[in-house]
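Researcher: Here's the sequence for the chain we discussed earlier.
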Amino acid sequence: MAVPKGKTTRSKKGKRRSHDALSKPARSVCPQCQEPKLPHRVCRNCGSYKGRQVLNVSKE
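Model: Thanks. This is the structure I predict for it:
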């Protein structure tokens, strides 16, 4: 004989979902132009990565 599942309380549900929150993406500062950028990525503003120019960015 099957027994119906009990109601999941808000507390139990909240404890289960405690690790589901999204965190903000990490930010670092470009050493060339001081603009915020994602770590380990080419700077979109100046096109540099690890102190050298890797993209030609046109200034309009």
